[in-house]
Amino acid sequence: MLGTFVNKLREEVICPICLDILQKPVTIDCGHNFCLKCITQSGETSCGFFKCPLCKTSIRKNTIRLNWLLANLVEKIQALQASEVQSKRKEPTCPKHQEMFHYFCKDDGKFLCSVCRESKDHKSHNPAQTALSPQRQTQEQIQVLQQKEKETVQVKTQGVHSVRDQVEHEKQRILTEFERLHQVLEEEKNSLLSRIYWLGSEGAEPQLNYLKKLIDSLKTKHEHCHPGSLLEDIKVILCRYDGPPQMYFAY
Q1: How confident is the model at residue 222 (pLDDT cuts 50, 70, 90)?
Q2: In the sheet where 33-35 sits, what is the strand order?
Q3: Global pTM value
Q4: Predicted local distance difference test score (pLDDT) of residue 133
Q5: For the B box-type domain, which residue ranges apply (predicted)?
Q6: What is the mean pLDDT of the chain?
Q7: Does 66 or 222 have the greater pLDDT score?
């Protein structure tokens, strides 16, 4: 009965904007009630006016006033709700003896208080077992579920950390391998550059001198020899030019 009355009262103090119980209730000129925060954020024109979200009446912002009577009513309704919730959380008691349940009769399938257990209705039954009340049983089940949830979260967290560690390890391995490859490539690059530099300076000099001697020899043959003989000599000279590679590209 009290719960129904409190619920009906609560319906009268619901903000039409946020649909929750009024927080710092205000009443605007058109008579409608809102949370202070909700109505001030509902929209304002450049002239300091806003429209009521329910009836669309134009209201000056500076006319908004806190409704202290409504605020007190909201406070009392919340106190009644808290009291009702607290009473529901109390351990149930035996309706006959007004004592808390401590036992369970298997024959009748009922929770028993200490007086019920010794009564003639249950004394001849199988020994009653100590039992928790339904609320306490539910509370313990909730605690078990919460513990399982906590353990699941811990396992999940450990799994995430393990994966992160593996990813970090693989990252470091790849970076190390790339650094090694970079060093090898750098050494190869320097070696090739050194060879190219050598060929462009000292290494090319013997080849140029050798070619110059071949050209001078061909000129002399051209002046004193028969063309057929000159052709044979050119073939021989070209064969000699194609000779030992180390004369041209020494490493």
Answers
A1: low
A2: 33-35, 25-27, 65-66
A3: 0.34
A4: 53
A5: 89-130
A6: 73
A7: 66
Predicted confidence (pLDDT) at residue 127 exceeds the cutoff of 60: no
3-state helix, strand, coil in the chain (%, to 5): 60, 10, 30
The mean pLDDT of 126-138, rounded to a whole number, is: 56
Choices 3.30.40.10, 3.90.226.10, 3.30.565.10, 1.10.340.30: CATH for 2-89:
3.30.40.10
CA angle 24, 27, 29 (to 5 degrees): 150
What is the C-alpha separation between 176 and 171, in angstroms, rounded?
9
- Listed by start position, the domains of the chain span 2-89, 103-131, 135-201, 204-247
Task: Tell me if 133 sits within 8 A of 113, measured CB to CB.
Answer: no
94: its two tokens: 């035996």
Q: Round to whole Å and give the CA distance between 117 and 24.
A: 53
Q: How far is CA 238 from CA 16, 23, 145, 207, 246, in A?
A: 105, 106, 95, 14, 16
8 Å CB contact between 41 and 82? no
Q: What is the SS3 assignment for 113?
A: coil
Q: Please, which pLDDT band fits residue 239 given cuts at 50, 70 and 90?
A: low
Whole-angstrom CA distances from 74 to 3, 4, 5 are: 15, 16, 14
Top pLDDT among 163 and 172 is at 172
103-105 and 65-66 strand pairing = unpaired
Cα-to-chain-centroid distance, residue 56: 43
